[in-house]
Amino acid sequence: MRTLLLTAVLMTKHGRERGGGPAEAPETTTAEPNRQYTEPPTEASDPPAQLAAEEGASTVNPETGELNGAGFGSESNVAIDQVYLPKKIVAKDIVGRAGLKMKKTARTVKNTDGTESIEWDVSPPREIYTVFGTASGTESGTTAYGEWTGFTGTFEAVRTEDGARFRSNRLILQEPAQSLLVQAVTDVKKRDSSGSVNFGFEIGIRTSQRWVDTNEGNSYEYTIKSVFNVQQNDPLAHMRHSLRHLLPVAKPKQLTVDTPSS
Which end of the chain is more exposed for a tag (fewer CB within 10 A), N or C? Predict the structure, then answer.
């Protein structure tokens, strides 16, 4: 099967900070040569992060990515086979807010006409985790920050930095992966009410050009790449393959064609 690659740049809704809750307004900055800027604090959080906070869904420190402040070695936070079990898989629970921040450094450039201008060196794009699994349904709700949509099923995320694994039966995805998977689940459910969908996405970030130009909003934008075609799940495929030598081979149906009499 040919791999389908889908890459998209995702701007944070209204340029607001995702996660956290109310914070101080962003500080006004003036570009200076060789000065580094990091993401300023902004006001609102996105609905999934707010929902997780309200439900107490995450045991992950959102700033550092550590679970309960104990780091990624605490037995109380690690399941069998060293898999973390948050109530919901969301980006900030995988890498922490620190893992999402990008940097920019101003430098002075001399133009051909003798004038000087400021240019920015920014953090390069990077992959932050891969998420895959089987989506068997969707869920939605409304918070003070708006509507949210998530998925139910069996999911796993693997953090790129160190291979840490996270597993949950609930998932929040970024656009356009969210809409793609919602449509796939909806189509499968029309044919089979118990059906489910297999998927896999690489989640990355790159520096937001809006933040570089205006110092407003998040310093990052999400990028999404599909690692294989979204497809209907066959839960018995593995067993069927294991029993292939024992199962009878289905006989092709014989077709009878009536020929007109001469």
Answer: C
pLDDT value for 147 = 87
Distance, CA of 160 to CA of 199 (rounded, Å): 18
Written as one letter, the residue type at 24 is E
Task: Please state, in angstroms and rounded to a whole number, the distance separating the CA atoms of residues 9 and 6.
Answer: 10
Tokens of 256: 């009878």
Residue with tokens 């996405």, as numbered in its chain: 201
Where do the domains of the chain lie? 8-233
Q: Are 189 and 158 spatial neighbours (Cβ–Cβ below 8 Å)?
A: no
Residue with tokens 């495929």: 237
Which pair of structure tokens corresponds to residue 129? 């985790």
In the structure, what pLDDT confidence band is assigned to residue 8 with cuts at 50, 70 and 90? Answer: very low
Other CB atoms within 10 A of residue 240 CB: 10
Burial classification of residue 119, based on how many CB atoms lie within 10 Å of its CB (0-12 exposed, 13-18 middle, 19 or more buried)? exposed
| Tens-digit pLDDT profile for residues 166-177 | 999 999 999 999
* Cis peptide bond prior to 40, omega within 30° of 0: no
Residue 111: its pLDDT value, please? Answer: 87
CA distances (Å), 103 to each of 22, 82, 120, 159, 235, in order?
22, 32, 10, 21, 44
Q: What percent of the chain has pLDDT over 90?
A: 40
**Sole residue written with tokens 């101003």:** 106
The full length of the chain comes to 262
Position 197 scores a pLDDT of 94
The DSSP secondary structure of 39-82, one letter per residue, reads: PPP-S---HHHHHHHHHT---B-TTT--BTTS-TT-GGGB-TTS
- Residue whose C-alpha is closest to residue 157's, from 148, 141, 170: 170
Strands 36-38, 220-226: pairing kind: unpaired
Q: Which one-letter amino acid corresponds to residue 145?
A: Y
